[in-house]
Design a protein that fits this description.
With 199 residues, this protein is mainly alpha-helical. The protein contains two helices and two strands; from the N terminus they run ααββ. A two-stranded antiparallel ribbon has the order 1-2. The longest helix is centred in the N-terminal third of the chain and has 125 residues. The termini are far apart.
């Protein structure tokens, strides 16, 4: 009887131990299952976050690409504006040079106009009336006639002087002088009579 009890006790102990071990293994399985489910949830959450981050990265990449294209377009426009600005500066410098030349030309013309105005005023002062103009014309004609008369008198006097010189050097009416013929030794005397031209 005692041996049967011990066997029953041992069997009971083994059964209890086996049951406890089974219960412990089931509890471990449940904990592992819960941990696995939690890990699966974390992985799913991480996948969702990775997808969101990938979308954000793609959006950011497209935005950067668009901004790069816009920057390239802006640089092209800036280059065009700079070229137009350089052309405008060159045209402005050319216009300034032309303006300076025109200003100098205008100053020269203004001086010429002032000179012409002064000369016109002098002429108007001198030829203010028809009577003064006629007197001036008469005076000019008289001076011209006087000049011609003086020139004619000077020529007549010169011819007289030349005739007297030739007469002094000639034979004074003698055909011979000192036994030598004077014919052909001196040129013949010519008398020039000049009359002033009438106007």
């Amino acid at each position: 009887m005692k041996n049967g009890r011990w066997v029953l006790i041992v069997l009971g102990a083994l059964t209890v131990g086996s049951l406890w071990r089974t219960v412990s293994v089931e509890q471990d399985k449940q904990r592992l299952s819960q941990s696995y489910q939690q890990a699966q949830q974390v992985v799913a959450e991480l996948d969702r976050e990775r997808t969101l981050l990938s979308d954000e990265v793609e959006t950011a990449r497209k935005s950067i690409k668009d901004q790069g294209n816009e920057l390239t377009s802006l640089q092209t426009q800036l280059t065009g504006v700079q070229n137009r600005l350089d052309e405008t500066v060159a045209e402005l410098a050319s216009l300034q040079r032309e303006h300076e030349q025109l200003r100098q030309h205008d100053a020269s013309l203004a001086g010429q106009v002032s000179t012409l105005i002064a000369e016109k005023q002098q002429l108007q002062a001198r030829l203010g009336s028809l009577t003064e103009l006629r007197l001036a014309i008469r005076e000019v004609k008289r001076q011209m006639h006087s000049d011609r008369w003086a020139a004619w008198r000077a020529r007549v006097e010169e011819f007289k002087r030349q005739d007297q010189t030739k007469l002094a050097a000639g034979n004074r009416g003698y055909l011979t002088r000192g036994g030598v013929s004077t014919v052909g030794s001196a040129g013949r005397l010519r008398v020039h009579v000049l009359e002033p031209k009438s106007e």
